[in-house]
TrEMBL record:
Species of provenance: Streptococcus mitis
Protein name, as recorded: ABC transporter substrate-binding protein
Family affiliation: Belongs to the leucine-binding protein family.
Top-rank lineage group of the source organism: Bacteria
Keyword list, A-Z: Amino-acid transport, Signal, Transport
Signal sequence bounds: 1-19
InterPro entries named in the record: BCAA_transport, Leu-bd, Leu_Ile_Val-bd, Peripla_BP_I
Keyword Transport tagged: yes
Domain Leucine-binding protein positions: 40-376
Length: 386
């Protein structure tokens, strides 16, 4: 997923066309990269731990740290312990780039996990590439983000994938022949989902309205919508605004289904909407605790709950898997360039969010779920396809 200025979900937050002769869009790379140390393997965290989308970054930091703790407790990688260098990019694209520079030049990390959002990931990857250090974003979702980027890997599905899923779901499951589309016009993440939705939806869009990230009063637009004949509201955006939209819509008596992407993920959405009004809500997730999960996913759930005394979000699960992907690729690697090469060869890696294989562009297609929320609680999760 990606954020307007940088997720949620939602980035998500995600890669690249292999470049010829070592030359990539962001500049020439140091093919060997940083050396793997004798006793430790350094991994950098570049997450949105404070700022506007801290809900995504803090969840990912927790999931990633849990994975590191478990790997180290099990003996590490080739007998080497993972040493984490954890940096906060403050939900700012410029800071994400600066953090990357610090991680690869000062700390000499061999791989980077994060950022969570697409904008921050796009800002960070150039400096990682120049140093020959692979960067995996658990949740950057922007289509085309990876073009020409040999050192970028994405751990989740892309925005167009979400737009198509929403179009099919509102048509087939919600029987919505007419919808209102209400999009965050400041977010590439939201605009890409909206674009894919418009192209895939066969019904009528009776109103195509926009808001801007940071808005808090949606009464005027919702009043216009209330006078329309429609079956559902589709809101491509992030929890920061989507939760408020739900709260105000329900407060005005608009009770139609409200549908969104993975940017709705997290308790913060419910806090904004309030549990009382967060009903008849549907949103996409890459991970679910409400459906039957694998033994590996159950172990993750139990460990996460025990460590943090809370439920893991899809962002925590994706970051957990991202660290394990890096750890798997670091086996036998002497430098960060070899870790990158091993990541690119990943096929059918079994994680808590399902199987991961990277294609030639370092993108992955993962299982997606449509979550049903009532009274602020997810009641059901259904596997969905575009």
């Amino acid at each position: 997923m990606k954020k307007k200025f940088a997720l949620s979900f939602v980035a998500l937050a995600s890669v690249a066309l292999l470049a010829a002769c070592g030359e990539v869009k962001s500049g020439a790379s140091n093919a060997a990269g940083n050396s793997v140390e004798e006793k430790t393997i350094k991994i950098g965290f570049n997450f949105e731990e404070t700022g506007a989308v801290a809900a995504y970054g803090t969840s990912e930091q927790k999931g990633a740290q849990l994975a590191v703790d478990e790997i180290n407790a099990a003996g590490g990688i080739d007998g080497k312990q993972i040493e984490v260098v954890d940096k906060d990019n403050k939900s700012e694209t410029a800071e994400a780039a600066s953090v990357t520079t610090n991680l690869v030049t000062q700390s000499k990390v061999s791989a980077i996990v994060g950022p969570a959002t697409s904008g921050a990931t796009a800002a960070a990857v150039a400096n990682a590439t120049k140093a020959g250090v692979p960067l995996i974003s658990p949740s950057a979702t922007q289509d085309g983000l990876t073009k020409g980027q040999d050192y970028l890997f994405i751990g989740t599905f892309q925005d167009s994938f979400q737009g198509k899923i929403i179009a099919n779901y509102v048509t087939d499951k919600l029987q919505a022949k007419k919808v209102v589309l209400y999009t965050d016009n400041a977010s590439d993440y939201a605009k890409d989902i909206a674009k894919a939705f418009r192209e895939a939806y066969k019904g009528e869009i009776v109103a195509d309205e926009t808001f801007v990230a940071g808005d808090t009063d949606f009464q005027a637009a919702l009043t216009k919508m209330k006078g329309k004949d429609f079956d559902a509201i589709v809101v491509p955006g992030y929890y920061t605004e989507a939760g408020k939209i739900v709260n105000q819509a329900r407060g005005m008596g608009i009770d139609k289904p409200i549908v969104g992407g993975d940017g709705f993920n997290g308790e913060e959405f419910v806090q904004q909407a309030t549990a009382e009004k967060a009903s008849n809500i549907y949103f996409i997730s890459g991970f679910s605790t409400t459906v039957e999960v694998s033994a590996k996913a159950k172990a993750f759930l139990d460990a996460y709950r025990a460590k943090y005394n809370e439920e893991p979000s899809t962002f925590a699960a994706l970051a957990y898997d991202s660290v394990h992907l890096v750890a798997n690729a670091a086996k036998g690697a002497k430098n960060s360039g070899e870790i990158k090469d091993n990541l690119a060869k990943t096929k059918d890696f079994e994680g808590v969010t399902g199987q991961t294989s990277f294609d030639a562009d370092h993108n992955t297609v993962k299982t997606a779920y449509m979550m049903t929320m009532n009274n602020g609680k997810v009641e059901a999760a259904e596997v969905v396809k575009p």
